[in-house]
Amino acid sequence: MTTSREIRLKSRPNGLPTPDNFELATVDVAAPGAGEVQVKNLWMTVDPYMRGRMNDVKSYAPPFQLGKAMDGGAIGQVTASGDPAFKEGDLVQSGFGWREGFTAPAKSVQKLDPRGLPVQTFLGAAGMPGLTAYAGLLKVAALKDGDVVFVSGAAGAVGAMVCQIAKAKGHTVIGSAGGAEKCAWLKSIGVDHVIDYKAETNLSAALAAAAPDGIDVYFDNVGGAHLEAALNSAKMFARFAICGMISIYNATKPEPGPSNLAQLIGKNIRMEGFIVSHHFAMMPQYVAELAAWHAAGKVTWKETVFEGIEKAPDAFIGLFRGENMGKMLVKLA
Ligand code: NDP
What we know:
Order of helices and strands: EEEHEEEEHEHEHEHEHEHEHEHE
Strand content: 25-35%
Shape: globular
Structural class: alpha/beta
Number of domains: 2
CATH class of the largest domain: Alpha Beta
Bound molecules: NADPH dihydro-nicotinamide-adenine-dinucleotide phosphate
């Protein structure tokens, strides 16, 4: 490999990103020096959090730089190595997504043992999004026996794992997603009640009908009207794991908060935001449980795949148009 195509951030979006915000460039890829590896990427991920990184604001992840390659999770294969710990053909996981290949210090990539799973699973169900579901449910929401769980963004990478982990642990699950196809899939994987929020005029009424006795846990991927509905249906001492608020990621002005936030008080609700990186220590425990659930047929996953680095911006923009079921991925080789 002597060259790689990469996607750069050309301009900062105002609202929903458009293809004009990105540019495709070709760069040389050096042979690896001592302590370096050269890697050809097989898969890269696009994730909603990357929208925040397109703004020039301080946050938990640094903003993408204009005119520079974007970055994010990727799975690749070593094509040449200057480090004795790696050999040609080794599978590796890295943060050098949004490009076809790269040469980097060997210590900046991690060897991947796929344990019989397709490698791209480690960008989805067996990777960051899956762990987000697991940690958010078990640690942040402190799931306990008998809980009724409501999940928004239920047919996405995180949401579908939340639904199935809660089901595997014996809970009643209500999932909200956009469109009949997504809702049918959720039913097929065991979700007890599905809400097609795009077909509902009154989300609070739809949730109240699905959970007449109320909800104990709300796993929020969406914010906005979903959070408001969850507050209305919350039981006393409900726990809200605030994972994401994708409904406002493209907002061009600050969105008002839920009008019914005061319900936190009377219902003694605990609402807690979290970032998965603080829970990476749970990964081995999660992957072991996932493997057991998968082997028992209790957990499955879907992927929506775009092919080619030039399609990566479309895949990313598609997240905000609801174009994915399960994990949105880009296949690079
Ligand atoms: P998804 O796979 O769920 O993809 C995005 C989905 O969000 C779309 O398919 C769409 O589904 C839905 N969506 C898009 N725009 C809107 C909108 N305006 N209103 C309602 N739904 C919308 O993404 P992920 O599973 O990767 O992420 C889900 C959430 O979790 C995001 O908010 C993300 O930022 C957050 N997250 C947080 C992490 C953390 O550490 N806290 C880690 C990982 C993710 P539909 O068709 O159903 O509308």
